[in-house]
Amino acid sequence: MRPQSETQIGAVSTIRLLQFQLLRKFVTMPVFINLMVAAPQMAILILVGRHDSERHSMQWFSQAWKQALLDLDPALDIRIWPDAGNHSEIELILVWNHPPGLLKQFHHAKAIYSLAAGVDHIFVDPDIDSRLPIVRIVDSYMANDIVQYVAAYVLQYIKRVQHWADKQKNSVWYKQPPFTFADKAIGIMGLGHLGGKAASILQQMGLTVNGWSQSPKQLPGVNQFAGDAQFHEFLSHTDILICMLPLTAKTENILNRNTFSYLRNGAYLINVGRGQHLVEEDLLSALSSGQLSGACLDVFRQEPLPQNHPFWSHPDIRVTPHIASVTNPVTAAPQLYENYRRLMAGLPLFNRVDLQKGY
Q: Are residues 331 and 204 in the same domain?
């Protein structure tokens, strides 16, 4: 994306700073924001791209976002790609899986918003101006969704739901020896907003929970490991490995043969991170050897998952179509609108992505 000149950026910043300093002396923050956004509003572009088989649902997704934002402010100028109108009027772009290279057409963009918690789909575009703020969604409703999904499949595995369903098919009455939840240790990779909440809820259910992250975290009741130095130790204490990591250059392919080899024998994998975290051939090999007893996968390298993919028919793999946590425009729009108002007022944005970390 073509950057503005340093002179332009400096002039705009100086004017905004003077406005800020003057108004903040005399008005409260809500009044200040209202005054600062009273100027002509910036045009917003919703830019969603997806596989042809999902085109209809993506059109619905774009329209739902537009309506949710208009419900908050009917005066907003919102456009849906490809009907962008005059590109020079677009100052805010809301994106999900946009075609790489497309963003460079919008030279006056001031910020990019991901219409999801993840932002890896944005970083595949080589033409993004590194000075543009990128913002992601942090939604408690999405967090609840993914925690419920993870808890459901953890319980299905521990309580052997599929095993008993198979017994029923063959009219077999069989009881197993007693065990407690604490007999199986959970290992969560990634302790951010989503992973941290999952760890806390699973721990409250009586499960032993271990957590691993790039940097140390503080979560009551969760055994925590951090950094490369403690990764293998974390894995060695894990029966059910749950990947909730963001996708970065460092975490890509992290679910591989070597990682699986450090898990307890017969461990179970749940991946709700990204498909690129998993080396698919290594998963199939680990299942074949018995190193892993099964896997639940919600994300894949290629989505939709091809119909001839071996995961569909594998008896020990559960496939779901990336539905563990789905963005709800109605619940997520208020935070996006608040950031829009802050952008108009020249204020710092909430949930801004650290470009160095990639999340």
A: no
Give the domain extent around 111: 6-139+327-345
Q: Confirm whether 274 is a catalytic residue.
A: yes
pLDDT for 165 equals 94
Is 108 a catalytic site residue? Answer: no
Residues 219 and 293 in one domain: yes
pTM summary value = 0.85
Q: Give every strand in the sheet of 223-226, ordered side by side.
A: 223-226, 208-213, 185-189, 240-243, 267-271, 292-297, 317-319
Structural tokens at position 12: 């705009």
Amino acid 299: pLDDT? 98
Cβ–Cβ under 8 Å, residues 185 and 212: no
Q: pLDDT tens, 298-344? A: 999 999 999 999 999 999 999 999 999 989 999 999 999 999 999 99
Of 79, 98, 193, 274, the active-site residue reads: 274
Asked whether residue 166 falls in the same domain as residue 301, the answer is: yes
